[in-house]
Amino acid sequence: xxxxxxxxxxxxxxxxxxxxxxxxxxxxxxxxxxxxxxxxxxxxxxxxxxxxxxxxxxxxxxxxxxxxxxxxxxxxxxxxxxxxxxxxxxxxxxxxxxxxxxxxxxxxxxxxxxxxxxxxx
Length: 121
Known about the structure:
alpha+beta; PqqD_sf; PQQD; 6 helices; Outer Surface Protein A, domain 3
């Protein structure tokens, strides 16, 4: 099976490929050696209280994305469609071509709904 055959999409999915996402304005991250580290403030009331009584609670936490997630998050710019991001991902990381758009759409949905890192334009 060629990568073109494995990336065939249903008509319903075809509509989703024209979506455009952008990173949320409050998203903070650093890129180190091509890997994205998302930085989140640890600012809950209990954390602030514990810091005042000298517990060593870090003010931020970092979440390291894998190479796929790092590539995808950096591609989300408010300009590229999901289709363009998928094409770029498939070109940059050959093994990503297996069920490319199905996996990409699931991951983008996770970034939007669960992590709240991106939003639909």
